[in-house]
Amino acid sequence: MRALYQKDLSIQDSYLIKGDAAHHLANVVRVEINEEILMLNGAGLTVKTQVSSLSKKEIILKCIASSTVNRTIKMDLALGIPKKEALELCLKQAVELGFRKIYLIRSEYSQTRLPEMERLESLIVSAIEQSNSAFMPEICPISWDKIPVSDYGEILMMDSQSDSQNDNMPKNPLPKLLIVGPEGGFSKEERDFLHKLANIRILNLPTPILRTPTAVSAGAGIILGSLLD
Questions:
Q1: At residue 229, does pLDDT exceed 90?
Q2: Domain coordinates of the chain in residue numbers?
Q3: Which one of 11, 23, 77, 86 is CB 3.0 to 4.6 Å from 82, fit for a cystine?
Q4: Cα separation of 142 and 152, whole Å?
Q5: What is the pLDDT of residues 173-194, one digit of tens each?
Q6: What's the mean pLDDT in 194-210?
Q7: Dihedral sign, CA of 17, 21, 25, 26?
Q8: Which fold has domain 75-228?
Q9: How far is CA 81 from CA 21, 36, 148, 178, in A?
Q10: Domain 2-68, CATH 3.30.1360.60 — does that match?
Q11: Mean pLDDT taken over the chain
């Protein structure tokens, strides 16, 4: 279903959509009368609507049903900032996979500066609308040593330069954290620091070296699989 993100969304009988959002729906997407659109606020509220009035500048959406989604997946991502295209793909995947927070870290081998937050938020909104995700992840620029590691019951570090460790870590009800480095991997100092974190599990998959977005997807799959066991 076509989705529309509205940060200040509330439950109403109808919604007047103007500006860029109306232009995109009317002139780019070319929605039609009676077409259904899912409105999202990124905080769990979803409102199913139907197009009741349509012009090139304004659209009126009639409320059909609403619900509040409870977040069931509790996992965050710590990402050494990769190159621009890889970063954008990682952010889109993070929305689709259900990460709550994305710690963006300028690591020693990061090859790019952090893009403007407005650009990052725009990418995330686009991913929310494409995936119909009920939640917007929080972007947190931070350093490795400032990650609140005590908040996590398990930390999974994707590290192709080390042997796998702690494969049989017991289940823990606290949230999980996935650590993925940039294209250049982790420096020796970063690896030494991260390997000493409590509740960390080092994973070196028996695959060729993974691109950063692929490592994010693979690591998320492992965490989601453990949550479903």
A1: no
A2: 2-68, 75-228
A3: 86
A4: 17
A5: 789 999 999 988 999 999 999 9
A6: 90
A7: positive
A8: Alpha/beta knot (3.40.1280)
A9: 30, 37, 18, 14
A10: no
A11: 91
